Amino acid sequence: MPVHVDHLISNRFDVSLESIAGTHDFQGAAPHRVSLYVSYNDLTGAPTEQIRISVDLSPDDGQTLIDYDKLLTEAGTDAPVANVNTGASPQNATDVIDISPETVMDYIRVLAEAHTAGATPFAAAQRIDLDCWLVWET
Fold first, then answer.
1. DSSP-assigned states of every residue in 69-104
2. N or C: which end of the chain has fewer CB within 10 A?
3. pLDDT 10s digits, 28-43
4. Which of the listed ranges 70-79, 97-106, 120-129 does the model predict with the highest average pLDDT?
5. Residue 20 belongs to a domain
């Protein structure tokens, strides 16, 4: 079965940009398995910096967005989550987030939001680079 990759997000988060979204339309070819590969690079080493990854699905190509609450992380299928909060400590971190295999989808939006542990915007010196790839099998 072919594997496909879409580099959804490549962004530097700082005080001027607190969130960014990447979208993909499967155009009626529903994937069998879907994963998000995420790479974080904390450029300042501040332990309070975080990125929250959340997913929305849409039945109508993004006109209606439905919060997805079955993300699979290192906790596995017994503890699906609505979003993944990632601190950038250690300075470089990676994560694989899976979409539950029984989910049928045609359109996905991945939202990445940067904030500090206290849910406040980054200070002027705080920066995190984020890359997120959508990887799926048809």
1. --EE-TTGGGS-BSEEEEE--SSEEEEEEEE-TT--
2. N
3. 999 999 999 999 888 7
4. 97-106
5. yes
> Residues 115-121: contacts with CB within 8 Å, 24+ apart?
115/18, 115/50, 115/52, 116/46, 116/48, 116/49, 116/50, 117/47, 117/48, 117/50, 117/87, 118/48, 121/15, 121/18
Quote the Cα angle for 22-137-11, to 5°.
20
Residue 138 forms part of a structural domain: no
Q: Is residue 10, in this structure, part of any structural domain at all?
A: no
pTM: 0.90
Return the closest-CA partner of residue 118 out of 47, 21, 65: 47
The boundaries of the domain holding residue 62 are: 16-129
Tokens of 129: 């680079």
Domain count, the chain: 1
Beta-carbon contacts of 78 under 8 Å, excluding residues fewer than 6 positions away, are none
Confirm whether 2 is domain-assigned: no
